[in-house]
Design brief:
The complex is a heterodimer. By secondary structure, chain A is mostly helical. In chain A, 61% of the residues lie in helices and 1% in strands. Chain A contains 9 helices and 2 strands. In chain A, strands 1-2 form a two-stranded parallel sheet. The N and C termini of chain A lie far apart (36 Å). The relative contact order of chain A is 0.16. Chain B starts with 24 loop residues before the first helix and ends in a 31-residue tail after the last helix. Classes of the chains: A mainly alpha, B mainly alpha. The interface between A and B is medium-sized, with 34 and 35 residues.
Chain lengths: 267, 237
């Protein structure tokens, strides 16, 4: 088995449809909104709420698969001298958590009326897990990707509460707890592995910022009232993010939403 | 009626643990180092395979088992300093070249159509031998002096059972057509050990230097799990 596994080779069964990220961005069915406007917060009052929630749930599902695969590859790709044993143990634990999340997401998807493969999958989440430097990979996955997961789960949890859907809010709350743990792992390992190498830490944080900008989807994730995914400050603080870091993510998302071009789809 | 003021035995009447064991502290540590090595190789392989298998249930099962075996590796890691090995990495190594070669062969399959090869290597070849090695250690070591190793060994042997690796193997075997690889004689991977001795426990996972002396082997004629032999529990005619 190779060390380092490219995103295009991720194995899926026949139900899945892979879309290239750029194709999805250019899909005319996705909403094109003027700069500064977003699709709107996910609330039960939105006429398309059910569809948007199902689409987001499916996105969570494929995201969990890719997070599982990313953590698994971190366990395999690095030799003992590149990644400490304790780091690999944490990644193995994350594998188990993401496997559970995948199972939860399948069941929640059925509960919400969608099914595996109803929406296309892009592999850009997994691409954050392809960096050959374990510190950068850890930062991309455990801080940027899992940080996004915190925001998404918190948004879905609140949506479940607003809808009066106890199953959705219950499951999202449990998954949120795991994701806070994963981000905390990332924060701790970033500190430990770069304790005597500030330059490497700076590179890792820069990589995280790039990934975070990508994951903000031009304001789709942010602090504006009409951002479909809200930045979950409280949970991010629990996970080891500093206020300055969260401010930067919010500011980057806001600035990005002002740019011309692709607006994120509703769901 | 028993005299409540009489001195009591330090052992409960049903406690049949015996003091002698086959392994010295050093021998037990050496074996534990081998266990840690194979558990590490296993959890790394399972993690790496997650991205390579298309079957969703297998994917999530590999993710779950990746952590199970990482936890076993951690148990063994923690045990080594307790066995006077202050540099655990010194003992965490393959017991022999044959097992190293086996692990290399085990982790070779990568293709998305090689799920069976991956599962069979782990659940039909390695896992039974690992369980055999752990069982041997459980049976042979001192049940009192080496109890912490026994506890870890028992955990490592039993946590696999309810999680369904062999079940996945069987269901995949029955639901997928046989694939014949053009590059391999006979088509399918042959999981044979290179010598009969390797197939017998505890050879492949933890070959030992201990000589088997039957007089030292702990004898457990009966115990709580053998209910038919417990006094007063004989079945009625």
């Amino acid at each position: 088995m190779r060390k380092s596994f490219p995103a295009e080779d991720l194995a899926r069964d026949g139900r899945f449809r892979r879309a290239r990220t750029e194709d999805r961005f250019e899909d005319p069915r996705n909403q094109f909104l003027p700069p500064g406007r977003r699709a709107g917060k996910l609330t039960p009052e939105r006429p398309d709420a059910a569809h948007a929630a199902r689409q987001m749930m499916h996105g969570i599902f494929v995201g969990e698969i890719q997070a599982l695969e990313g953590a698994g590859r971190t366990v395999w790709d690095f030799d003992d001298d590149q990644a400490p044993f304790a780091l690999k143990l944490d990644m193995a634990r994350q594998c188990w958590d993401e496997a559970r999340h995948t199972e939860i997401s399948v069941k929640l998807g059925e509960w919400m009326g969608t099914e595996v493969g109803e929406f296309a999958e892009t592999a850009f989440l997994y691409q954050a897990a392809c960096n050959p430097d374990p510190v950068l990979r850890l930062t991309g996955v455990n801080r940027a990707l899992e940080g996004l997961a915190i925001d998404v789960f918190n948004t879905m949890r609140e949506f479940g509460q607003a809808c009066g859907d106890p199953v959705l809010s219950f499951c999202e709350d449990w998954m949120l707890a795991d994701e806070v743990t994963h981000v905390k792992m990332g924060s701790d390992w970033l500190r430990r592995l770069t304790e005597h190498d500030p330059e490497r830490r700076e590179r890792a944080l820069e990589f995280q910022r790039v990934v975070d900008k990508l994951f903000s989807f031009r304001g789709f994730r942010g602090e504006a009232e009409d951002s479909p995914i809200q930045l979950a400050r409280t949970f991010r603080r629990m996970a080891g993010f500093g206020d300055a870091e969260i401010d930067t993510i919010a500011a980057d998302a806001e600035a990005d939403s002002e740019e011309e071009g692709w607006r994120a789809p509703v769901g | 009626m028993a005299d409540p003021s009489a001195p009591r035995s330090p052992f409960a009447p049903w406690d049949r643990r015996e003091l002698p064991g086959l392994f010295t502290v050093e021998e037990s540590a050496r074996r534990v180092g081998h266990y840690a090595w194979i558990e590490m190789r296993l959890f790394e392989a399972l993690g790496g395979w997650v991205a390579t298998v298309p079957e969703l249930d297998v994917k999530t099962t590999l993710g779950r088992h990746c952590y199970h075996h990482a936890w076993h590796a951690e148990l063994w890691h923690k045990r080594l300093p307790e066995l006077r090995e202050m540099r655990p990495e010194r003992l965490i190594q393959a017991p022999n070249a044959a097992l190293e070669a086996f692990v290399a062969a085990l982790t070779e399959p990568e293709g998305r159509d090689l799920t069976i090869e991956k599962l069979v290597g782990v659940y039909r070849v390695l896992a039974p031998r690992k369980i055999a090695a752990y069982t041997y250690h459980l049976a042979a070591t001192s049940q009192i002096t080496d109890a912490p190793t026994i506890r870890s060994s028992a955990s490592s042997s039993t946590t696999r059972r309810p999680t369904g690796g062999r079940g996945r193997c069987s269901s995949s075997l029955s639901s997928r057509p046989t694939r014949r690889s053009p590059g391999r004689p006979g088509g399918r991977r042959s999981w044979r050990c290179s010598s009969p001795g390797q197939a017998a426990s505890p050879g492949p996972v933890a070959s030992g230097t201990t000589r088997h002396r039957s007089r030292h082997r702990p004898r457990r004629q009966w115990g709580p799990h053998h209910e038919e032999e417990l006094p007063g529990r004989r079945s009625r005619p």
